Amino acid sequence: MAKDKSSKQSLDTIISRNNNDKSAIWVTDFSQDSVIDFYDSFTEMEKDTEIQVIPVFISSYGGEVYALTAMRDLIKSSHKPVATIAVGMAMSAAASLLASGTKGCRFASPDAHIMIHQVSGMAPGKTADVVESAAVISALNRLLLQNLAKDSGNSLKKIEKAITSKNNADWTLTAEDAKSWGIVDHIGIPRLLKESSPMILIQTKPFAQKKSSTPKGHKKP
Fold first, then answer.
1. Which of 60, 117, 152, 186 is catalytic?
2. How many CA atoms lie within 13 A of 136 on its CB side?
3. Catalytic residue (one of 59, 92, 100, 109)
């Protein structure tokens, strides 16, 4: 029997298909181009009276810090709740965007990996240029950590301590870890329903574990 060709589709192909779906926004990259696409899609969904919650699906290794801050500012200034959903991975800038969603509307798929680290950059040139670049990177790093602390409900000191405990290396969290740190609120992938107006975002319910039953006439040990 021939294998199902659909099983061979790459994640990029699936994401590309979903990018054409106006019922959700997908963030896979953080760049000047992605900011423009994000703005266009986001503002369209803000104007759509059928949409009560704006869903932003995130599956990204990260990217440019300024692209992140632009997207985050747009989310924070929206008059509608914004659901952020990490699917597979939310690393670097993507982790910060994940945390910026509306409280109660932040999700991570069960096997998603969330990674946080400090801002990095290279500054070739004169000594003065290198010093100035280092100051800018330090300020950006502090801004990102402050925003993460605010969005997760932790103190900046606690976030900084967690990073330094990793010797300033990458700090990788599971979905459960991210929930315990307040970066997400739920573990699971919500679904979009558009069968009736207005469109809403719902969370899929976890499978309930069946209670063990004891046959009649038998006592529990």
1. 117
2. 11
3. 92
Domain-located, residue 210: no
Known catalytic membership, residue 152: no
Task: State which residues form the domain around 62.
Answer: 12-202
Angle made by CA atoms 38, 43, 47, in degrees to the nearest 5: 150
Note whether residue 212 is domain-resident: no
SS3 label, residue 55: strand
Q: Could you tell me the two tokens for 90?
A: 């939310």
- Spatial distance between the Cα atoms of 84 and 98, rounded to a whole number of angstroms: 5
Q: Please report the DSSP string for 167-192 in residue order.
A: TTS-EEEEHHHHHHTTS-SEES--EE
Does the annotation count 212 as an active-site position?
no
What is this structure's pTM? 0.75
Q: State residue 137's pLDDT score.
A: 73
Determine the pLDDT at residue 164.
85
Q: Is the residue at 213 inside a domain?
A: no
Question: Has residue 72 been placed in a domain?
Answer: yes
CATH number of the domain that residue 130 is part of: 3.90.226.10
Write out the two tokens for 45.
């969904």
Handedness of CA 69, 20, 57, 75 (dihedral sign): positive
How many CA atoms, within 13 angstroms, populate the side-chain half-sphere of residue 167?
0
Rounded CA gap, 40 and 218, in Å? Answer: 65
Residue 31 DSSP class: S
- In the chain (221 residues long), the average pLDDT of successive 10-residue segments reads 38 38 86 95 93 94 93 96 96 96 95 85 53 70 92 94 81 95 94 57 51 45 41
d(C-alpha 122, C-alpha 133), whole Å? 8
